[in-house]
Specification:
The chain is mainly beta. It has helices spanning 23-27, 105-117; strands at 31-41, 46-54, 58-62, 72-76, 82-91, 94-99, 126-136, 139-148, 152-156, 166-171, 176-186, 189-194.
Length: 211
């Protein structure tokens, strides 16, 4: 991990101490969001990272992946709310991102809350395009995953899987396994729901799922 440009230590309240020493002045404008996840798109990767805090001018993210100061990223807080910015500093699995344009952080969080309470809310998904394996009552077969979230996956399969079918999904060569239920299917396409959600840390990089 590139440590160049790293800031001083994080504040006890979770706010970043900016490299220019103005962390205390900005602390009152930051919102702690330690339970929120964002989809971070990079030049050759995409993953779910934890949002530690948010301000009008930037955010602090956490992920155990290689990253570089000056790297451009797109942050999707939901499927409808996206911002772009540059990684300004990195320290111990966290990074500070400066937005290209300021946002109204309070209004953004309110909007995210409204979206999560909506009946048609869907958790953030990762475009994955990788092969996994399904364990059915009559054997184990390959299945192509189209997208992946903590709660489930979209797939393409060579046969019709009836809604309600229970199966085991083997990811990353079997290193990661989840019991899943076919939630819907239409021809070869369908969606799986995991009885136990994936850990966010498992989804920090889609590259981990590719050969």
């Amino acid at each position: 991990m590139d440590k160049s440009g790293a800031s001083g230590p994080a504040r006890p309240d979770g706010c970043a101490v900016d490299g220019d020493g103005v962390g205390d002045r900005r602390a009152q404008d930051r919102f702690r969001t330690v339970c929120r996840v964002a989809r971070v798109k990079r030049a050759h990767d995409v993953g779910l990272w934890r949002v530690r805090n948010l301000s009008n001018s930037g955010t602090m993210l956490a992920a155990d992946v290689d990253m570089s100061v000056g790297e451009r990223i797109e942050i999707a807080f939901s499927e409808t709310i996206r911002v772009e910015g540059i990684i300004a500093w990195i320290k111990q699995g966290r990074c500070g991102v400066a937005f290209d344009a300021p946002v109204d952080a309070a209004a953004l969080l309110r909007r995210l809350g409204d979206e999560q309470r909506a009946e048609d809310y869907r958790a953030l998904r990762l475009p994955i395009e990788c092969e996994a394996r399904v364990v059915l009552s009559d054997g184990t077969r390959p299945i192509d995953l189209i997208d992946l979230s903590q709660q489930g996956a979209g797939y393409s399969y060579g046969a019709i899987l009836e809604p309600g079918t229970e199966l085991d999904l083997l990811l990353r060569g079997g290193a990661l396994q989840r019991r899943a239920i076919v939630r819907w299917s239409q021809g070869a396409r369908g969606g799986l729901w995991f009885t136990v959600p994936l850990d966010r840390a498992d989804l920090e990089s889609v590259l981990r799922f590719r050969p």
